[in-house]
Amino acid sequence: MDRIAAARSNEFMTTTSDIQSAVVIGGTGKTGARVAQRLTAVGIRTRIASRTSGTLFDWNDQTTWQPAVSGVEVAYVTYAPDLAVPGSSTHIEEFANLADREGVRRMVLLSGRGEPAAQKAEQVLADSGLEWAVVRASWFAQNFSEGYLLDPIREGHLELPVGEVGEPFIDVDDLADVAVAALTRTDLLGRVLEVTGPELLTFVEAVEAISAASGRAVSFERIGLQQFSDGMAEVGVPSDVVELLTYLFAEVLDGRNQSVTGVVEEVLKRPARDFTTFAAEAARTGVWS
To answer: Which of 170, 153, 169 is nearest to 211 (CA)?
Structure first.
């Protein structure tokens, strides 16, 4: 299904004149909020749909699906809790069929690298009959500044069940720019856009970059999977989230994703932001203070 190597237009043009309306499923999340902001900025009427927004959307309540997609032309879709969970492809198939019936013509799906269940969901979308694209992402740099790694970083000590494996952390702002391009350009349709940062970093190196940028000592310790899952459960993390994170650290961070792609630069005609730049900009906001 991947068509990253296919020949495409050399022009970087984001033509939105024929796109008037969009919905962002998961529009209050890390990527969704950024995508919605960008769509609105270029004049596209954008509906934000999530469990906490004005337009309610819940993957486990199909009565919320039709109001979310009714009357829009394109959809950016994030799946909760993660496209890697079993059964996600069934939901994506049912949602794509509903969107098609409601007149949605194009769907862009957020996916993750190295996740078999996610790739099954990608294929379901490709077979749906909709115009489609997939943004398949590496680990988010912003997990250190906006997600579940923020509190440990603030406390000065991060414990994770991961060793010396390299990860090309993607800046979510780059991801959002690519997603908007896929929603508004025809030359990116029918492609899996595998987005990464420009370099491989271990988690130790990422923490060192955060320490240097923030001026605060932050240490990293590798721990076992059981200790990791027990620790999350002790602080009240829901069991399904514990299961998901344990799976991701055990399976996805096994070295299978130790490579970078040039997709961000190809699509946006500029280099992907590196982790040092992300850390410096995040530190200036005071998020780790």
So the answer is: 153
Cα separation, 107 vs 249, whole angstroms: 29
Q: Which residues on adjacent β-strands are paired with residue 58?
A: 61
SS3 18: coil
pLDDT-based confidence at residue 247 (cuts at 50, 70, 90): confident
The one-letter code for the residue type at 64 is T
Q: How far apart are CA 40 and CA 28, in angstroms?
A: 14
Structure tokens at 33: 């909020």
Query: Which pair of structure tokens corresponds to residue 135?
Result: 């943004």
Domain boundaries, the chain: 21-139+170-196+259-273
Tell the residue number behind the tokens 């020949």, with chain if given. 7
| Contact residues for 98 (Cβ-Cβ < 8 A; gap 6+) | 65, 66, 69
Mean pLDDT of the region 215-226: 96
The CATH architecture one would assign to domain 21-139+170-196+259-273 is 3-Layer(aba) Sandwich (3.40)
176-190: pLDDT as tens digits:
999 999 999 999 999
